[in-house]
Design brief:
- Helices cover about 50% and strands about 5% of the residues.
- It is an alpha+beta fold.
- The strands form three sheets. The protein has a four-stranded mixed beta sheet with strand order 1-2-7-4.
- A hairpin with a 2-residue loop joins strand 5 (about 385) and strand 6 (about 390).
- Helix 7 runs parallel beside helix 18 (about 450-465), helix 12 (about 235-265) crosses helix 14 and helix 14 packs parallel to helix 18.
- The longest helix has about 30 residues, at about 295-325.
- The protein is globular and about 90 Å long.
- The relative contact order is 0.15.
- Residues about 25-30 have low confidence and may be disordered.
- Bound molecules: protoporphyrin IX containing FE and 2-acetamido-2-deoxy-beta-D-glucopyranose (NAG) (2 copies).
- One 2-acetamido-2-deoxy-beta-D-glucopyranose binds near residues 175 and 496.
- The site of one 2-acetamido-2-deoxy-beta-D-glucopyranose has 5 residues, from helix 8.
Length: about 500
């Protein structure tokens, strides 16, 4: 028989050992220390704000080289998870997409886009689902994009004529491509006939102002007690003024469409394609969406298509042309392909694009090196979760650095080189299935405008390659071509692309 004093020593040691184990392997109680992603050292109050710099996607890429593919930054009081690896993106945009499909509330957007009644910034939920399904099924579907083929072809011809008849051999290609994408979106969304030419340039400059306002550093967003700054400077007043301008503009457009509809009793009989405002009004009238659509929703959705669709598309085209000018061998190869496909008909149409494999590879490579939205659009987590072993708290803002992922040397060979050939023998695509390459995002919140955007970009590129020979301005060499990026949510080429153009007389 063993006496009690004999037991006491092993018992006490056992208890101590268990206590020790609990301390070591994490405490199951609610005060447990979480395992957080690494964070760079931060300053008081501003946190890591000072580390973002002019080009946040580049600064964050550099930081991730020291702190790893998942970093937790603090922008003022705001916790921000920065994801710089394909694995991390896959976890967030696929495995745990539901948890990360919210967007943070951004005050400027809230004020200007009717309390975030649009699709891009609406919080994740029933309203967003309804608006998104209207857009995906009705406005941006393959069939609808096909129905605007004539608009694209007419606008492309106008662009070619404009270049052909320009008085000088040196042209501002940035300017030409911005007009092209803007004119196409204007016609598709609003129906150009109802928009006077001056109004259409006005909207371009207003959208630019809007984008500038969006990226204006707004201390109150990060440090709540600094909010008073916006009341004393003109910021809040400017936002109000802009909200009014856009509302007047879109209200006018919708009103004109309503009046026109009264005259043309049956849209389907008219010779014109229905534009997106027509379609939204029809959905509202026929109550096709399940629950009634408000007037503000129509204006907000059209606004979204302008904001999401114009700048991004022209930016992508300008970068593509710039890379081709920097790489004359690729340009020549592309030109040969396009001219060979055009053959004796001396023209290319959308039907020919599927035969242009190199052209598709060039577009992909350009979007890899220069994704127009390198940080996608911000997301926000709706519950506590675990990503690659780290604890991520509810309401953490999430930034996915698609640009860093697309240049990750672990995933890409010579990632900094422009080399369209890398896409030739792979099935790799930008539709959100390959997480090493996500210029359009992925998952529930991924870009619904891919088909629309690619239809415009590929045809524009083919037409330009067919009709002209491009070169750098007189005396410049490939090395002189400035590829500096401009600050902003959409990262475009800072210096406008000026090129020398020679007409190809055969076409
Ligand atoms: C080259 C051109 C374009 C690029 C690079 C691009 C890229 C993107 C990206 C990165 C996102 C965020 C995805 C995410 O958070 O995961 C996005 C969202 C969006 N894009 Fe695009 N986009 C382009 C063209 C367009 C066009 C032409 C349209 C419409 C006509 C469009 C409409 C939208 C909308 C509405 C959203 C928000 C979706 C949501 O939050 O549910 N985009 N786009
Ligand atoms: C070229 O076009 C862009 C875009 O419209 C414009 O901002 C820029 O001032 C133009 N530059 C020159 C030199 O014409
Ligand atoms: C939308 O605006 C029209 C015209 O101003 C008005 O007749 C209609 O009642 C409004 N509809 C809704 C749902 O607010």
């Amino acid at each position: 028989m063993i006496s009690f004093p004999h037991l006491i020593v092993p018992l006490v040691s056992l208890i101590l050992f268990i206590v020790f184990l609990f301390k070591w392997y994490g405490n199951p109680s609610s005060t447990a220390r979480k395992r957080l992603p690494p964070s760079p050292p931060k300053l008081p109050i501003i946190g890591n704000l000072h580390q973002l710099g002019q080009l946040p996607h580049r600064s964050l890429q550099a930081l991730s080289k020291c702190y790893g593919p998942l970093m937790l930054l603090h922008l003022g009081r705001l916790p921000v998870l920065v994801v710089s690896s394909a694995d991390g993106a896959h976890e967030i945009m696929k495995n745990q997409d539901v948890v990360f499909s919210n967007r943070p509330k951004l005050r400027v957007i809230d004020k200007i886009i009717y309390g975030s009644k649009d699709m891009a910034f609406a919080p994740y939920g029933e309203y967003w689902r309804q608006v998104r399904s209207i857009c995906v099924l009705q406005l941006l579907s393959n069939k609808r994009v096909q129905s605007f083929r004539r608009v694209r072809e007419e606008e492309m011809s106008l662009m070619i004529e404009k270049i052909r008849h320009s008085s000088s051999s040196s042209i501002n290609l940035s300017n030409i491509l911005v007009s092209l994408t803007n004119d196409i979106i204007c016609r598709v969304a609003l129906g150009r006939k109802y928009i006077a030419a001056q109004e259409s340039t006005k909207i371009v400059s207003k959208l630019k102002e809007f984008q500038e306002l969006l990226v204006t550093f707004n201390p109150g967003d990060y440090i709540p007690w600094l909010d008073w700054i916006n009341r004393v400077n003109d910021f809040n007043a400017n936002v109000e003024k802009m909200a009014r301008w856009f509302d007047d503009f879109f209200e006018g457009v919708v009103e004109e469409h309503r009046n026109r509809k009264k005259r043309e009793t049956n849209l389907k009989d008219s010779s014109n394609e229905a534009d997106l405002v027509d379609i939204l009004l029809e959905i509202q009238r026929e109550n096709m969406a399940g629950s009634p659509i408000e007037n503000d929703t129509i204006k907000a959705v059209i606004f979204d298509i302008f904001v999401a669709g114009t700048d991004t598309s022209s930016t992508a085209l300008v970068w593509t042309m710039a890379e081709l000018l920097k790489h004359p061998k690729s340009m020549e190869k592309l030109q040969n392909e396009v001219r060979q496909v055009a053959g004796s008909k001396l023209d290319v149409t959308e039907d020919d694009l599927d035969k242009m494999l190199y052209l598709k590879a060039v577009m992909k490579e350009s979007l890899r090196l220069h994704p127009p939205l390198p940080l996608l659009l911000p997301r926000e987590s709706t519950q506590d979760s675990k990503i690659l072993g780290y604890d991520i708290a509810v309401k953490t803002r999430v930034i996915i650095n698609s640009c860093a992922i697309a240049r990750d040397p672990l995933l890409w060979e010579s990632p900094e080189d422009f080399c369209p050939e890398r896409f030739l023998d792979t099935g790799m695509d930008f539709r959100g299935l390959n997480f090493e390459y996500i210029p359009f995002g992925a998952g529930r919140r991924g870009c619904p405008g891919i088909t629309f955007a690619i239809a415009v970009a590929e045809l524009a590129l083919a037409k330009l390659m067919l009709n002209f020979n491009f070169g750098l301005p007189h005396g410049a060499t490939e090395k002189d071509l400035d590829m500096t990026e401009s600050p902003g949510d959409t990262v475009s080429k800072k210096i406008p692309l000026l090129v020398n153009v020679r007409k190809n007389n055969k076409y």
